Amino acid sequence: MKQLIETIVKPLVDFPEDVRVNVMEEDQRVTYHLSVNKSDMGKVIGKQGRVAKAIRTVVYAAGASEQKKLFLEIGE
After folding, report:
1. pTM of the model as a whole
2. Cα–Cα distance measured from residue 68 to residue 14, given in angstroms and rounded to the nearest whole number
3. At what angle do helices 2-9 and 50-62 cross, to 10 degrees?
4. How many domains does the chain have?
């Protein structure tokens, strides 16, 4: 899943080397924290959050087979 997030986000940003995905696993949930360069935040979020929503939709659909709830947080 981490690789999927990186594959989606890296072509969108100007600084793909700054893309980081940290994974935090708990009992019933997995949280992926996506961090990008400060100047790329607008590109990842998109107008009215459309790009971020699309990324989350793909990630949640890919993780639907897992028994844990997935969350994707986007930050700097």
Report:
1. 0.88
2. 33
3. 150
4. 1
